[in-house]
Amino acid sequence: MLRWRFLLGTLIIAALVGLCRLDTRATVPGLYLMPVVVFITFLATKELLDLLADAGMRPLAPVVHLVNLLLVITAWVKYTDLVQQNFTPQGDFSDFFFLVFSQLELTVGLLIFVIFISEMCRRHGPSGATANVAGGILAFLYVGMMLHCAVSLRMVFGIGAMAAWIIVVKMGDSGAYLFGRLFGRHKLAPLISPGKTIEGTVGGLAFACLGSVLAFQFVVPFCNVSLEYRPGPWWGWIAFGLLVGTAGIFGDLAESLLKRDVGRKDSSEWMPGFGGVLDILDSLLLSAPVAWFCWASGMLGHFTQH
How far apart are CA 156 and CA 154, in angstroms? Predict the structure, then answer.
C-alpha cells in the first residue's frame, strides 16, 4: 500500500507541475487549471453530500453542486478581469483587500438565502429542513468558499503563490506521516484521528517550514514569469510555513471529524490508497484562506509588472 501511495502521489504531483507549467504560458490565467478545479469541486461536493447524508442531512444536491461550481467559476472570471487590467497586488492593495472582503457578507447572505429557498420549495410535511439547511450551508462554506479562495490566490498573486501553498501543505502532510511512522508515541487527537501523533505534527511543521523556504527561494520566482517578485523578509517564509502548515493539520482533523461522526474511514474509494478527493483536499481547504491572508499582509513580498 505504501508503494502504491508513493507511485500515485508522484503521478499526481507530476501532472500538477505539468498543468502549472502550461498555465504560466496560457493567454488567459488559469485556463488550464480551471477545468481541473471544476472537476475537483464537483467530486469534493459529491463526497461531502454523501457524508452529510450519512449524518441525516440531505440538502438539495443540484443546488449545492450549482452554487459551489458558480463560486469557483465566478472567482476565476472576476480576477481574470483584474489581471487583464494589469492589476498588481501592491501599493493600493489595501483598497482591493477591503473591496474583496466587503463582498463576503453579501456572498454568505445569498448562499443562506438560496439554501432556505430550496428547502421551502421541497417541503411536504416533516422533512428535516433544519438539518438540511445546516448541511447545505456547511457544503457551501467548506467546499465552495474554500476553493473560491484558492482560485483567487492563484489569480491575484500568481501561480507561484498557489504552488507555494500546495508545497507547504503537502510537505507538511508528508513530514507528519514520516515522523509519525518513525517516532510517533503520543496521540494528538485519538478520538478524531487515532493515527496522528504529536511527534508527527512537529515533524510535519518542520517539513512545512522547509517547503516554504524552498518554495520562496526557487518556485515562486520561477513561476511568476509575467511579474517581478520582490521577496519579503526570511521570517515571513517561516511564518508562512508555520501558519499554513498548522491550518493544514486542522483541515485534516476537520475532515476526520466529519468521517468519524458517520463511521467512515475515507470520504470515498475513488482513489485506492488515498481515499476520496476530499481526503486529498482536506488539509488544503482550510489552509487556503490562511495562505491568502499571508500574501495579502505583504509579509511574503510584493509583485510588480515587468
Answer: 6
- At 270 the three-state DSSP class reads coil
Q: Where are the domains of the chain?
A: 2-305
24-36 confidence digits (pLDDT tens) = 777 777 888 899 9
* Dihedral over Cα of 57, 63, 69, 70: its sign: negative
pTM: 0.87
For residue 280, give the C-alpha cell: 486529498
CB atoms within 10 A of CB 182: 10
d(CA 93, CA 75): 18
Cell numbers representing residue 17 in the block: 507541475
Low-confidence ranges of the chain (pLDDT < 70): 1-10, 12-13, 17, 80-106, 123-127, 224-228, 272-274, 302-306
Share of the chain above pLDDT 70, in %: 80
DSSP-assigned states of every residue in 191-219: TTEEEEEHHHHHHHHHHHHHHHHHIIIII
3-state secondary structure of 189: strand
Q: How many CB atoms lie within 10 A of CB 239?
A: 18
> Is residue 54 within 8 Å of 264, Cβ to Cβ?
yes
CB burial string 219-233: b at 16+ within 10 A, e below: bbbebbeebebeebe
State how far the Cα of 32 lies from the Cα of 24, in Å rounded to an integer: 9
Tell me how far apart the alpha carbons of residues 168 and 159 are, in angstroms, rounded to a whole number: 14
Distances (CA, A) of 277 to 24, 163, 208, 220, 271: 25, 19, 22, 26, 8
Torsion of Cα atoms, 297 then 303 then 304 then 306, to 10°: 180
Q: For the CA atoms of 256, 261, 265, 266, what is the dihedral angle to 10 degrees?
A: -70
* Number of other CB atoms surrounding residue 263 within 10 Å: 8
